[in-house]
Task: inverse folding
């Protein structure tokens, strides 16, 4: 008999990198690599396919401020290239890399929560 698990919100589990079914096991074995299954409840993560979703959200919400910072530095101060690299480079890395894992976790948890699957013709 399989244990019944209460539905857990994707934001609660996915952002923290926890299993979308039990909320206890870890979803990732590396920075962005999914584990084959949950070590706590045994949920198989083969259903998960977030594809380029996390990168898309990062591009939309994190890269735009980085570009705006670079343009502002250029227009306001006519900053040399080394200043651009020292200011916008770390800013871009700080705003683009850290959100990738929580976003991927949220997308995987959302796929489980909403039972997303490939579309089929009726």
Result:
């Amino acid at each position: 008999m399989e244990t019944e698990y209460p539905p857990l919100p994707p934001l609660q589990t996915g952002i923290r990198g926890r299993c979308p079914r039990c909320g206890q096991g870890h979803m990732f074995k590396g920075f962005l690599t999914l584990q084959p299954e949950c070590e706590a409840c045994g949920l198989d993560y083969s259903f998960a396919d977030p594809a380029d979703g996390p990168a898309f959200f990062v591009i939309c919400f994190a890269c735009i401020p980085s570009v705006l910072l670079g343009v502002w530095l250029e227009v306001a101060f006519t900053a040399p290239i080394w200043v651009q690299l020292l200011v916008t480079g770390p800013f871009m890395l700080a705003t683009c890399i850290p959100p990738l894992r929580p976003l991927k976790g949220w997308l995987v948890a959302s796929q489980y929560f909403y039972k997303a699957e490939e579309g089929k013709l009726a």
